[in-house]
Amino acid sequence: MPKNSPHVAVIGLGAMGLPMASHLATMFPVTGFDPFPPRRELAEKSGVEAQATPAAACPKADIALLAVRDHAQAEAALFGPDGVLTTLAVGSPVILTSTVGPDAARDLADKLEAAGYPLIDAPISGGPVRAGNGDLLIVVGATEGLDAAEPVLDALSSTLTIVGPRPGDGQALKAINQLLAGVHIAAAAEAIALARGLGLDPAVVIDTLSHGAAGSFMFADRGPRMLQAYTGGAEVKSRIDIFVKDMGIVTAVGRTSHVPLPLAAAAQQLYLIAEAAGLGDRDDSSVITILSPDTRKEPRP
Questions:
Q1: 3-state helix, strand and coil shares in percent for the chain, rounded to the nearest 5
Q2: What is the pLDDT of residues 230-256, one digit of tens each?
Q3: Which residues contact 236 (CB under 8 A, 6 or more apart)?
Q4: Active site residue 174
Q5: What residue ranges define each of the domains in the chain, with the CATH number in brackets?
Q6: pTM value?
Q7: Neighbours of 164 (CB within 10 A)
């Protein structure tokens, strides 16, 4: 490990935080925090020194990286009684990788600035496997603190785009990313539901259309996982309730910008229906079962 490598504290060792921390630990000294002991145990096996509070993860850190669920968790992790700011050296950058929306990012940036810390607004996209390989898309809104944080961002990304100089700029572009992702997943679910309704073999439909003009990354990626929803469920890589949150951010951004988003609003309702049906903690591919719940339907010979 090179001398003078920044020490990184990863706050949140969930589906994205743990693979990011594990990947960073191959290049930098890394400590981490998660409230759940099993996640801390997994982190320790990956070379991450895991702690039971955000404060305990940060005394030696040069950079704190937040990989939490939402704005409320970010607030608690940063400003709580055992929060990051109680031990992180003043002036150290805080990298926000979570999707919280532009207004929330600016609110956090203002509070951090008042305490003497720059916020790097850097939401991520790509999923757990790409996080573990340093192959993420990261979109950044920041100037202050960016030079110090850039080695960490470079290590995690294959595509790193500086969107603008202000915290919130990265979140704005991430909202557009989530609009497309959320609509594409919903469209894939509709297509596969229609295939089932017509008595076609969904696996053949997915394989065929993935190679044509109608294909998309989400159709090719989520399609096979949607079929697993009928045989015990797909591995949870991105939860339904995450898309409830993210599509809520998308539609709120559209409303405040006075831009109509009818497809995003329709997709949001589908995720809300799935959450109300008790699928909130399931993989987002399970949304197919809301549109096509009849597991007895078999494809035509």
A1: 50, 15, 35
A2: 998 899 989 999 999 999 999 999 999
A3: 15, 281, 282, 283
A4: yes
A5: 8-165 (3.40.50.720), 172-291 (1.10.1040.10)
A6: 0.92
A7: 16
